Amino acid sequence: MFKKILIANRGEIALRVIRACREMGIKSVAVHSTADSDAMHVRMADESVCIGPPSGTHSYLSIPNIISACEITGAEAIHPGYGFLSENASFVQVIEDHGLSFIGPTAEHIRTMGDKITAKETMRKLGVPCVPGSEGGVDTIEQAREIADEMGYPVIIKATAGGGGRGMKVAQTADDLEVAFSTARAEGKSVFGNEEVYLEKYLTLPRHIEIQVFGDGKGGAVHLGERDCSLQRRHQKVFEEAPSPALDEATRQKIGKTCADAIASINYAGAGTIEFLYENDEFYFIEMNTRLQVEHPVTEAIFGIDLVREQIRVAEGMPMSFKQEDLKINGHAIECRINAEKVPEFRPSPGTVKQYHAPGGLGVRMDSAIYDGYKIPPHYDSLIGKLIVHAPDRAAALARVERALGELVIDGVDTTIPLFHALLREKAVQSGDYTIHWLEQWLDTNPEI
Ligand code: ADP
């Protein structure tokens, strides 16, 4: 049993892990930059270590500093949260080389899935359906043109190392291809240090549906249904729900089993998410995330389980605490990502939170690390909270999220709260009839939120 875990992250996800540790009787160590000395994760953890200046590169992304913090505090394991080093295979290797444990899959699995071309090849071999596209990387514009002409437009050019919605460019017609190709390559190189790109058919009416999987690292695996994350802006999720309004139980079980079997056959350990586009009753794999997702609470809500606790158990070599037949969906859950941004431009709005009041009541969970007087630093992601509601069915969940949003007060900075109030009044959101393009189109026609 681990006695002490270091959390290599900040914000709400650091609190999320600290909470699981505390309930399991495990001590927690927070790390922080100088910009986060007053952050809630530092206050809430049992111990804390300053690991560098405000810039993420020199603090939350500094592997030597994080390893030193482990050695100073005697932490035996590291939970990476999401973002930062959570999908960095070299980090996992260094952790293992120091005789420490990483709470997550092996370096090899992270490496395989972190490269989108290799991930697609691996998944195809494991029987998972993929988006039609190039076989492997595309090096020249001539090659790209040949494939796109054959496949038909629109197409999307993706950086193999891309993530967070970056390194992807759409070519609606042959005229756009050259610019899309060179910009995706340039972005891949400048942001991710790898200019390799590949081509995919650009689907025009899909939903984004992802399957939560969990493996014990010894050939055992389960799926925990799906999350529908179709409401996106710039390929980034804004509002998520589980289950998806578009799937029936038979479809869910079929794709869920395909995913669970795939990760079982590679002895995958811990939490993972297999992301698909879903169009005309077909699933198309796009990528796998080898970590906890931001939107994991909607799955926790409908299954009544603690995914972080489970991650810690599996990292200790213990069996999963549930089997596939134990996992039954109960009700409906919705998550709203609350960002410190001014809508409708979505301009980051760091600053001081003058007043914060979290909503409460039955079926309401607010995961946030802000507090009255908290100064949101400008150096990091603008996510400052997640409002999650759970109710017996979708209609009740919609009513509950509206009620909870009405109680939520964050004064002093601009937030995306007004966006959700406006969205909940929309028919498409009320009926669940939306695709990944719906939100952007709606934003184009509704500049006043
Ligand atoms: P990232 O790693 O940056 O999150 P993903 O491959 O997961 O990138 O894609 C993110 C989003 O981009 C998807 O949810 C979807 O909205 C859009 N997208 C990706 N591939 C396609 C495609 N082939 N057709 C249409 N949209 C796509």
Could you characterize what this model shows?
The chain is α+β, with helices and mostly antiparallel strands and 449 residues long. It has three domains: 4-103, Rossmann fold (3-Layer(aba) Sandwich); 132-201, Dna Ligase, domain 1; 207-445, D-amino Acid Aminotransferase, Chain A, domain 1. The chain has helices spanning 11-23, 40-44, 63-73, 89-97, 107-114, 116-125, 141-151, 177-192, 249-265, 296-303, 307-315, 394-407, 417-424, 427-431, 438-445; strands spanning 4-7, 27-33, 47-52, 77-79, 101-102, 155-163, 166-171, 197-201, 207-216, 221-233, 236-242, 269-279, 282-289, 332-339, 341-342, 347-348, 351-352, 355-357, 364-368, 375-376, 383-391, 409-411. It has an eight-stranded antiparallel beta sheet, sandwiched between helices. It binds adenosine-5'-diphosphate (ADP).
Radius of gyration: 21 Å
Helical coverage, percent range: 25-40%
Structural class: alpha+beta
User: pLDDT under 50 segments (min length 5)?
Assistant: none
- What's the CATH class label of the largest domain? Alpha Beta
Shape: globular
Bound molecules: adenosine-5'-diphosphate
Give the mean pLDDT. Answer: 97
How many domains in all? 3
Strand order across the largest sheet = 13-12-9-10-11-14-21-19
Portion in beta strands: 25-35%
CATH architecture of the largest domain: 2-Layer Sandwich
Give the tally of β-strands. Answer: 22
The CATH topology annotation of the largest domain reads as D-amino Acid Aminotransferase, Chain A, domain 1
| Amino- and carboxy-terminal Cα gap | 50 Å
CATH superfamily of the largest domain: ATP-grasp fold, B domain
Largest sheet: 8 strands, antiparallel
Number of helices: 15
